[in-house]
């Protein structure tokens, strides 16, 4: 329930028409109450001291079964909730799943979320985890609120790197090696090309020539390129499957290169296009956004022109109400530029576009030496994590396939959780050595908490009888704090969506788990007292439901035992 609005609506002061809801907030130190209303901002309008106002609010507050006590302290009105009544409402809202219901404001609205968007024929590396996991989490968060979400992987399947690879393959590559080694072979060809180009100055020109042949769908060169795309797309799909990330559209950059002439025409019609050293640009200096490059001097399309075409195409296809682009902060200017160009072209949807940017996510120097580039390759990172996770369960009494299943879930969840644990704009160095511990701010700790709840419920082996539930057994500080925290879910979910910030939920989940641990270490759940047992088990069952939901939103996998 929205307790802040509930309290806000009950507050009334004679002759003052004011919405108090926004002033109601949760009290940190629960000794002083559960929710409070600071009266300082009202002093000016009401020409009274905050203490006088607080007293007046207290005096006028109606008797209500949810509020057990009101105190005035230093200009604050402090509200104490009736613990049993409140627990009953909140736990029943979780049990009936009412708390998880979508927000009527967003039902039938469409959100496009574009993320991952890897440049193909290269290894996916640790940096791709950020876009992939932040994007997937945002997709799930929006979905949970009622949006119909379209997941788009705008693959980088266009550009001179493909000219390089195709040239290298046709001149010194081997079909046999390509069949055998797939992406490794492609990456090898690319690196090889770059090495040779250091001494052979003609190679760069060759790459451009071959890329042009790809662009013109040349009968000899184009099929080779297509094969490369297939191989690397499959590679990306396999990795994404393991991370439980799946897309509705894989329409990539190459699909929009032919749109260049349309883009040019639209810009020309609006007199937005100017020439600069043979290239075509939109001058955005007056908006402090520099120059947006639309067409290269050789007549080919550019990153921005393809993005303009892609946005228009997506709007025509999906009629989205908003679109998110989850891409590194380094590309900020690019997004600002083409959003502006779309606005100048008169597309209303331009104001519904958001660049969701994030900082650098990396390993400490020298960790997991990468194969060719500077960053750790995702495949290697997953393997390393798996081995670490396997060590955690190696000596457990499970059969081999179970151990592997659990190790996989621990390993992948650790990678995913670390990519969204901190505010997305922060640069994060991934502390991989401590990510696999059942203690600390780790996903393993979260998963462990879930298994503990499961095991308490399982061991109790009792079918909960709601008639035996007496909410007075949840009046201890630890137990009631869990109820208070659980009810923060809808507000935090909304906030995570509004700020495009999954870490709001990952932090909440961690804190919730800490409090759950506190609860079952300080209170016996199963005791001689039947009513107490049923009540506490009911609390745990509902917390388990809430955890399951949060796991889904931050893409952690549940493990029943570990
Ligand atoms: N493929 C690009 C890269 O790896 C990211 C694409 C971002 N999305 C976009 N619509 N431009 O840098």
Question: Descriptors for this entry?
Answer:
alpha/beta; Gyrase A, domain 2; single chain; 4-stranded antiparallel sheet; 20 helices; 562 residues; binds arginine
List the helices and strands and how they pair.
Elements (H helix, E strand, L loop, with lengths): L2 H8 L14 E2 L8 E4 L4 H4 L3 H11 L6 E7 L2 E6 L1 H13 L14 E5 L11 H19 L3 E5 L7 H13 L2 H7 L1 H17 L3 H13 L5 H22 L17 H10 L3 E4 L2 E5 L7 E5 L7 H16 L3 E7 L3 H13 L8 E6 L2 E2 L15 H16 L6 H21 L7 E2 L13 H18 L16 H10 L2 H10 L4 H20 L7 H24 L9
Parallel strand pairs: 5-6, 5-10, 10-11, 12-13
Antiparallel strand pairs: 1-2, 2-4, 3-4, 7-8, 8-9
The structure holds arginine.
Can you give me a brief rundown of this structure?
The protein has 562 residues and is an alpha/beta fold.
Structural class: alpha/beta
Main sheet attributes: strand count, strand direction, barrel closure: 4 strands, antiparallel
Strand content: 5-15%
Low-confidence stretches: none
Please give the radius of gyration in angstroms: 28 Å
Small-molecule components bound: arginine
Overall pLDDT metric: 94
Q: Helix segment count?
A: 20
Fold and architecture overview:
The protein is of the alpha/beta class. Among the domains are: 3-81, Arginyl tRNA synthetase N-terminal domain (Gyrase A, domain 2, 2-Layer Sandwich), CATH 3.30.1360; 160-242, no CATH class. It is built from 20 helices and 13 strands. It has helices at residues 3-10, 43-46, 50-60, 83-95, 126-144, 160-172, 175-181, 183-199, 203-215, 221-242, 260-269, 303-318, 332-344, 378-393, 400-420, 443-460, 477-486, 489-498, 503-522, 530-553, and strands at 25-26, 35-38, 67-73, 76-81, 110-114, 148-152, 273-276, 279-283, 291-295, 322-328, 353-358, 361-362, 428-429. The strands form four sheets. The protein has a four-stranded antiparallel β-sheet. A four-stranded parallel β-sheet has the order 6-5-10-11, sandwiched between helices. Helix 4 (83-95) crosses helix 17 (477-486) and helix 12 (303-318) packs across helix 13. The mean pLDDT is 94. The structure holds arginine.
């Amino acid at each position: 329930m929205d307790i802040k609005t509930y309290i806000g609506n009950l507050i009334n002061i004679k002759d003052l028409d004011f919405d108090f809801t926004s002033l109601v907030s949760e009290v940190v130190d629960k000794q002083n109450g559960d929710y409070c209303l600071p009266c300082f901002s009202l002093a000016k309008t009401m020409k009274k001291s905050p203490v006088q106002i607080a007293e007046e609010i207290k005096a006028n507050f109606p008797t209500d079964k949810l509020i057990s006590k009101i105190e005035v302290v230093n200009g604050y009105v402090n509200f104490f909730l009736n613990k049993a009544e409140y627990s009953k409402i909140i736990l029943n809202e979780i049990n009936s799943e009412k708390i998880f219901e979508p927000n009527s404001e967003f039902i039938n609205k469409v959100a496009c979320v574009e993320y991952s968007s890897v440049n193909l024929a290269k290894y996916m590396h640790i940096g791709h985890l950020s876009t992939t996991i932040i994007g997937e989490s945002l997709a799930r968060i929006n979905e949970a609120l009622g949006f119909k979400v379209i997941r788009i992987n705008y693959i980088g399947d266009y550009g001179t790197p493909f000219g390089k690879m195709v040239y290298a393959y046709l001149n010194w590559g081997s079909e046999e090696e390509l069949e055998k080694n797939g992406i490794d072979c492609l990456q090898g060809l690319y690196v090889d090309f770059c090495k040779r180009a250091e001494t052979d100055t003609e190679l760069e020109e060759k790459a451009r020539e071959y890329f042009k042949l790809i662009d013109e769908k040349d009968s000899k060169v184009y099929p080779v390129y297509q094969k490369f795309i297939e191989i690397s797309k499959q590679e990306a799909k396999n990795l994404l499957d393991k991370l439980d990330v799946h897309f509705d559209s894989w329409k990539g950059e190459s699909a929009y290169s032919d749109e260049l002439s349309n883009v040019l025409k639209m810009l020309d019609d609006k007199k937005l296009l100017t020439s600069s050293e043979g290239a075509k640009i939109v001058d955005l200096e007056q908006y402090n956004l520099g120059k947006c490059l639309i067409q290269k001097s050789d007549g080919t399309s550019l990153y921005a022109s393809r993005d303009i075409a892609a946005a228009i195409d997506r709007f025509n296809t999906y009629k989205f109400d908003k679109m998110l682009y989850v891409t590194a902060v380094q590309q900020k200017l690019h997004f600002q530029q083409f959003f502006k160009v779309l606005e100048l072209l008169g597309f209303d949807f331009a104001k519904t576009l958001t660049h969701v940017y994030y900082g650098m996510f990396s390993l400490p120097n020298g960790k997991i030496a990468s194969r060719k580039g500077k960053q750790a390759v995702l495949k290697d990172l997953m393997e390393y994590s798996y081995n670490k996770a396997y060590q955690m369960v190696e000596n457990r009494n499970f059969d081999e396939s179970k151990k592997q299943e659990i190790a996989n879930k621990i390993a992948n969840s650790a990678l995913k959780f670390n990519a969204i644990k901190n505010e997305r704009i922060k640069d994060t160095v991934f502390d991989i050595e401590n990510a696999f511990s059942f203690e600390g701010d780790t996903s393993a700790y979260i998963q462990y908490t879930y298994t503990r709840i499961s095991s308490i419920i399982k061991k109790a082996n009792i079918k909960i009888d709601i008639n035996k539930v007496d909410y007075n057994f949840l009046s201890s500080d630890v137990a009631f704090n869990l109820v208070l925290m659980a009810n923060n879910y809808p507000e935090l979910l909304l906030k995570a969506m509004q700020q495009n910030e999954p870490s709001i939920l990952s932090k909440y989940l961690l804190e919730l788990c800490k409090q759950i641990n506190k609860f079952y270490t300080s209170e016996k759940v199963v005791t001689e007292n039947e009513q107490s047992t049923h009540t506490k088990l009911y609390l745990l069952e509902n917390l388990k439901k809430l955890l399951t939901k949060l796991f889904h939103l931050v893409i952690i996998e549940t493990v029943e035992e570990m």
